[in-house]
Amino acid sequence: MRFDVVTIFPEYFASPLECSILGRALEGGIVEVGLHNLRDYTTDKHKVVDDYPYGGGGGMVMKPGPLFAAVEALQEQEPRGHVVLLSPQGRTFSQSRAGDLAARERVILICGHYEGVDERVRETLVDEQISIGDYVLTGGEPAALAIIDAVTRLLPGALGDEQAPDNDSFAEGLLEYPHYTRPAEFRGLAVPGMLLSGHHEQIRRWRRKESLRRTKTHRPDLLERAPLTPEDLELLEEIAEEEEVGIDE
Ligand code: 9D3
Question: What is the set of active-site residues?
């Protein structure tokens, strides 16, 4: 799969793309990332990419000309890219949106800046707008990186020998159970005895229960949407009873 990123800060992406799983996926040819400086698609001496808003008011708007020129130049190459504008107005990114993008051969990511982009870019150049959540970034670049990261690790071979991507927390709809490693006691804090018991079936059930407990406490919204088995309902019943005891004591 290939990403093409249109940005006024191509250098922003350099070290994240070299590191860890992303770096290895690039080296192994599992993913390609093309970085395109928007200023290269300007035609004026000062390489201006923004201008004042019609109608007045504060802030600057990204001019349509350079964005159209950049995307049209990229779309001359095969295959055609799915064009995503990173924008606070977009649909919120999620594990399932990552999966949708991972199925595409080519994605063009446009990083916005200033107060936003000229509306004609949105209307005619862009296939989809994506936000990464309800907080204000300085621009679309960190959002583009988050998307490249989440999508790349889903590509076949990207995780190497490490765990399969569909084994993760959000993919299953629950938060992860607590993890421990050596030593068995650290600064007086013990690892739960169950994990040292060697009873694999009991360990599996304990982990599932702790997953459910955490999700109930920290992300009740996820629990509502998660596909729950009859065993899960039984475990949630146990958790509710433990909580009731907690209130009395
Ligand atoms: C006053 C209105 N602001 C919108 C919240 C203007 C504005 C602020 C910051 C417009 C763009 C930006 C820069 N942010 C992004 O380009 C962006 C973003 C984000 O800020 N949060 C979450 N996801 C994204 S994707 C792109």
Answer: 88, 115, 153, 168
